[in-house]
């Protein structure tokens, strides 16, 4: 896997984002740079990133076999079975 570095964030946009997101304490510059590199440049966009609206989430049932997985978990819960869940790492 090769690392893909993004170009440096625009300093003026980073400074404005820090100003907009700072409340009692200064918002961390490194975090503001990462947000700007990801295309998040305003307070509203940052809020949407950190506190997402569930209306903007994808339907999990679009994933293959999601219904089977849910049915199995419900059955395990009803039968008081112990189960373990894992998250597979992306192969990208």
Architecture overview:
- It is a single chain.
- The chain has helices spanning 11-21, 29-37, 43-50, 66-78.
- The protein has one domain (11-78).
- It is mainly α and 92 residues long.
- The chain is 45% helix and 0% strand.
- It is built from four helices and no strands.
In short:
This protein is mainly α and 92 residues long.
Number of domains: 1
The secondary-structure element order is HHHH
Strand content: under 5%
**Overall residue-averaged pLDDT value:** 89
Alpha carbon gap, first and last residue: 8 Å
The percentage helix is: 40-55%
What structural class results from the helix and strand content? mainly alpha
The number of strands is 0
Which value, in Å, is the CA radius of gyration?
A: 20 Å
Unreliable parts: none
- Helical region count? 4
Shape: elongated
Please describe the biggest sheet, giving its number of strands, its sense, and whether it closes into a barrel: none
Keywords:
single chain, 92 residues, mainly alpha, 4 helices, 45% helix, 0% strand
Q: Layout of SSEs?
A:
Blueprint: H1 11-21, H2 29-37, H3 43-50, H4 66-78
Helix pairs in contact: 1-2
